């Protein structure tokens, strides 16, 4: 079922990004423009008995622009009850292959200096193993200073003073060498606040990302539906916010309350127009009809 969820939110959820702030004059209420396509809202629909939902809509992130990112863009997110991340990977591989065939008429692409074949075998790689192989850092047994020293040695710029942001920066250094298509799995819980933990190792999560041409072009997971675990992770994110991490996730008490009533096992996944820009080998700004531009009278 196609659904529409709020674009104005009291707390932003479903992603880690800096939001745009606004204000509701009628309710006298500070609000944010959404940074995901209704993740926490669509999960409420899972709890309400809707088996499968999706939404295509605009997301807004008050961050920098580059060849892969803009502040306003279109994404799709779907949620599938009684499915897990393994089911999600099968569906997403089928979906991407269909997009490539129907829209571009080919499975073979050359973009951003990489060549890849979506029609071939999609490998799975492990987050922690990949980082250790490329940098020598064991993500699950490291310190802030160790990662900082490694990034300095590698000449990688970083912006953030929290462990989560440093781990994410280290991974992004590693991913730029991956041509794909691959599914990245085994993400640490530290960088996956909405993903269900793995039974065999609770420090890892049932998350998957599509990696193409050195970038992430799709993100999904078995959704966390344990209210106690979710509350603890929101508390950890709150501490990151207090420490100055502008991209940390805002706690949502009403969402935790919904989980207390019960949400079925669910797989969620999101991707957006960046995928089409990648396959067309164009900067995302060149694939939008009206990208935001600074007015001429304000140009220096």
How would you characterize the overall build of this protein?
This protein is of the alpha+beta class and 300 residues long. It is 31% helix and 22% strand. It contains eight helices and twelve strands. A hairpin with a 2-residue loop joins β6 and β7. The longest helix has 20 residues. It is globular and about 50 Å long. The model has no long low-confidence stretch (mean pLDDT 94).
Tell me the series of helices and strands, N- to C-terminal.
EEEHEEHEEEHHHEEEHHEH
- As a percent range, the share of strand residues is 15-25%
Query: CATH superfamily, please?
Result: Bira Bifunctional Protein, Domain 2
- Helix and strand content put the structural class at alpha+beta
Contiguous low-pLDDT stretches (5 residues minimum) are none
CATH topology: BirA Bifunctional Protein, domain 2
User: What is the CATH architecture descriptor?
Assistant: 2-Layer Sandwich
Per CATH, the class reads: Alpha Beta
Work out the helicity level.
Answer: 25-40%
Separation, N- and C-terminal Cα atoms: 48 Å
Largest sheet: 7 strands, mixed
